[in-house]
Write a structure and sequence with these properties.
Elements: H1 2-20, E1 36-37, E2 50-56, H2 61-75, E3 81-87, H3 94-106, H4 110-122, H5 131-140, H6 145-152, H7 155-171, E4 178-181, E5 185-188, H8 189-192, H9 197-212
Parallel strand pairs: 2-3
Antiparallel strand pairs: 1-5, 2-4, 4-5
Helix pairs in contact: 3-4, 3-7
Length: about 210
């Protein structure tokens, strides 16, 4: 695990260095250039940990492309870091994809279905944009139809979608994939200089937050 994380960090550094220049690590990432500092702090749910939020949309091809790198990074994040995904509610099907995400989370099948949803949309051409299509997809993957109905229609899932929308607005999310760091910073691919470079900027900001504590 340590070796894999070391390789990942080395790759991130190699990708970032040509665009950001040489010199000390802190000087590479600047507010307003590589990330945006929030005027007001967004809510977090990580307690004493530094929280990193990935904002994504299932129908976004860039989110699909970013997923392998983010999944590898999230499996072994920096010490003292909590990572979570938050679906955005813009982009037409955003609200129903968010409901899909939180339904899977409530049913305890998110880990196995998250990648499958991306594959179904982007590789199989399925349009999971209505209740019937989503229900059929869950049933195909071993979820009882009645269990799906109870979760999909629950107040809990509706409230989670509302909280996701509120958090997206608090961070001022304008594009996906993007990252929020500890309620204080927002990182987009164009600002960071590329999708995978977002992870390098996130690690820099995580270190800043830990030092500040």
């Amino acid at each position: 695990m340590i070796a894999r994380r070391g390789l990942l960090l080395a790759l991130l550094a190699a990708v970032a260095a040509p665009a950001l220049g040489q010199g000390s690590f802190p000087a590479r990432f600047l507010p307003g250039e590589h990330y945006r500092a929030l005027d007001e702090r967004a809510p977090t749910a990580a307690g004493d940990s530094v929280e990193v939020v990935e904002f994504f949309l299932y129908s976004c091809p860039h989110c699909r492309a970013f997923e392998p790198a983010f999944e590898a990074w999230a499996a072994e994040p920096p010490a003292g870091t909590t990572v979570r995904r938050v679906p955005v509610t813009f982009g037409g099907p955003g609200p129903i994809y968010a409901r899909l995400f939180y339904t899977a989370e409530r049913l305890g099948v998110l880990d196995e279905l998250h990648g499958e949803v991306f594959a179904a949309i982007h590789e199989d051409g399925r349009r999971l944009t209505n209740r019937a299509a989503i229900r059929a997809f869950f049933v195909e993957h071993g979820v009882e139809g009645e269990a799906f109905d109870a979760a999909f229609d629950s107040d809990e899932v509706a409230e989670r979608v509302e909280r996701a929308d509120a958090l997206m607005r608090a961070y001022g999310v304008m594009s996906v994939p993007s990252l929020g760091v500890n309620g204080r910073y927002w990182i987009s691919g164009p600002m960071a200089g590329g999708q995978e470079r977002m992870l390098g900027v996130a690690e820099y900001l995580i270190a800043q937050e830990r030092t500040a504590r």
